[in-house]
Design brief:
- It is built from 4 helices and 3 strands, in the order αβββααα.
- With 142 residues, it is α+β, with helices and mostly antiparallel strands.
- Strand 2 and strand 3 form a beta hairpin.
């Protein structure tokens, strides 16, 4: 768990539905600060992050960190052809956030989604295929 990476990639947005400010990081989505003001939301986020970090150091499980040490990334590879300036900008952003280029891209996407569709950031249960009634164990008549 890298507290600085999580803190540096946190995004603050206003949730119109809940009518509160929300601070979240794409790197640790279970750590969320919500409050009536932006400052209070950041304060809550910082407090929660510090508490989670202490618990992590004590060997307790926090979010994706199921055991001490570096967690599996749980990421997929993405290969894209971009302009040299775009690549340089991603690496510069990654350095300023003190994270990897992939985490910088995650941050940019998360930030963009938060600006355009805040409710899309809520995680939903994966949709399951609906079973047709009366078809279990029956062969098709075709």
């Amino acid at each position: 768990m890298n507290r600085d990476k999580i803190r540096n990639t946190a995004v603050c947005r206003f949730d119109k539905r809940e009518r509160v400010y929300v601070v979240e990081s794409s790197l640790l989505d279970i750590c969320t600060g919500m409050a009536d003001t932006e400052e209070e939301a950041w304060e809550i986020f910082e407090d929660l992050l510090d508490t989670m970090y202490i618990k992590y150091l004590e060997g307790r499980r926090v979010g994706q960190y199921q055991k001490p040490g570096r967690p599996r990334a749980g990421k997929v590879e993405l290969h894209a052809r971009v302009k040299p300036d775009t690549k340089a900008a991603i690496f510069t952003l990654a350095q300023s956030l003190k994270c990897t280029p992939g985490e910088a891209v995650d941050f940019l996407v998360y930030q963009r989604v938060a600006q355009t569709s805040p409710t899309a950031l809520r995680t939903a249960a994966p949709k399951r295929k609906a079973k047709r009634a009366g078809t279990k164990g029956q062969k098709s008549a075709r």
